[in-house]
Hints:
The protein is an alpha/beta fold. The protein has helices at 23-38, 53-64, 84-92, 123-128, 131-137, 140-146, 151-165, 167-179, and strands at residues 2-4, 9-11, 15-20, 42-46, 71-78, 93-100, 103-108, 114-119. The strands form 2 sheets. Strands 4-3-5-8-7-6 form a 6-stranded mixed sheet, with helices on both faces. Strands 1-2 form a two-stranded antiparallel sheet. Helix 1 (23-38) packs across helix 7. It is globular, with a radius of gyration of 16 Å.
Amino acid sequence: MQLNQKHGRERRQVKISILAECYTNECLGMALCEELKESGLEYITKHKHVYSMAKVVGRFVELCKKLRVSEHLVALADYKPNSFDREYIDRHTFNDRVISKGIRIRQIRCDRRAYTILFNPRIEEVLAESREFKSKLGNPRFQRELKSREICEKYGNLFRGYIGGDRALVDKVIELILGGYR
């Protein structure tokens, strides 16, 4: 094992699969992955055209059964009030941890190495709290682009800036993956 200089821990060969509910969540997940990569963690993102949360959790349960020892799963999803998806999330997750305003992490019941990062109520509202996104979210064109496949290509730096500014989220994900969920 190698020492991870950034966090002062031993570096493990850990793989993370990230499943995203929508393109905006995928883009934020990719920015998160870039930060995790600096901590010596390998990652892959898995996203099919606009997953619903029920499909993300269902796919997660399926992937949990095939997890290897050094693998972890992370889902990124909106936590919409009064929806079937929210009820589904509540049934399949536990151990709720609030990370910052509008962001929480929960463990998925199928395996201790599976987590979901929830944006309450939607990722757009969470992003609206940040300096980087506040001015852009009022633009109808940007609102449409958030739902498009090209969002990461056009605004990847904006998402990386947001993640870089939210150390609480990055550090909590690293702690959970390198240290286990306690």
